Amino acid sequence: MKTSFTLAQLADPHVAEADKILRACVHCGFCTATCPTYVLDGNELDSPRGRIYLIKDMLEHDRPASAEVALHIDRCLSCLACMTTCPSGVHYMHLVDQARAHIERTYRRPLGERVMREVLARLLPYPRRFRLALTAALAAKPLAPLLAALGATRLAAMLNLAPTRPPGRPLVPQTVPAIGPRRGRVILLAGCVNDLLSPEINAATIRVLTRHGVEVVIAQGAGCCGSLVHHMGREHQALDQARANIDSWLAVPGADAILINASGCGTTVKDYGFMLRTDPAYAKRAAAVSSLAKDVCEYLAGLPLKPAGPAPGRAVAYHSACSLQHGQRVTRPPKEILGKLGFAVKDIPKVICAAAPPVPTIFCSPILQEGCANAKSGLSRDCDLM
Ligand code: SF4
Ligand code: SF4
Known about the structure:
The protein is of the alpha/beta class. It has three domains: 7-106, Fumarate Reductase Iron-sulfur Protein, Chain B, domain 2 (Orthogonal Bundle), CATH 1.10.1060.10; 111-161, no CATH class; 169-306. 53% of the residues lie in helices and 7% in strands. One iron/sulfur cluster binds at residues 25-31, 48-49, 52, 82, 85-86, 88, 90.
């Protein structure tokens, strides 16, 4: 794709990066076939190619984002299927990240949206605050249909996303010793939302690792990976969270890896090196953290796994999270692990993004919310267990 940035614009490393990405795109449109938002509404502006054109136009003219650009970029689920499909290696993720930061800086959203985004950015990444909010949301959940009928659809969407059980307690900094001879030592990102909504995932991760001789450290001072606010374009907040994690993790001696079991968070931590490449104080340290970052299944696949009990012999269908298969290009380890543990793993023939990450789910239009829900229910039809 031909671009027309001026030399003065290209002196900015962010613009230079956008230029490099845009020039790689040859407009072929292969990416449209795997883009869930384009598949759902057929609007070119809700396809990766259409979004790339919108971003190009906005950045080249260095103009404030319009309501139209904000709408179509907001609808992007960041599933990154377009990056897997693209034959030209267009790094859509870095381009859309830059577009989101530009929108955040230059577009004044309607009041209700601004308030909602502010609330999310101040709550979700901070487990203690979010725990209080979840407790309140649990009490208010029955009001979701009424709020939706009154037109407060985003508030209703947030209440619908709230769990039906009380939130867990965030993991505290600690070192959990290996059971038996120690064969490894890892740092585990406890995370923010995940640790409260599904505490059993971190608990199971720690059990499996320690049972296989791996010491697990939850580091003092680590918190949200930054992806929640990064996807909202709040670049400064995201980079501050990344720096806090880098300081915290690099203070832990002797760690073989930094493990992450929420794949969206893993995609972001693996990108810290890029995100902080222009920060002289953090560039090298961020790259070091990214090189240590692994999805938990990548690490487990390298261990001689022992089933906890007799082989279950059940057929399971494995639906790979978009951020794991497209963001991190990790596809085989989860199936290999399930196979080693005695499960018969079935492939799901046709999969598009089905889970709808939290921020777009709250902000995208009802048609996309409905489409994502339909995709998800369609996936479960052919499976004994997902
Ligand atoms: S990240 Fe996903 S939703 Fe966004 S443009 Fe690419 S394929 Fe479409
Ligand atoms: S598949 Fe790649 S090169 Fe083709 S239009 Fe999409 S982003 Fe551009």
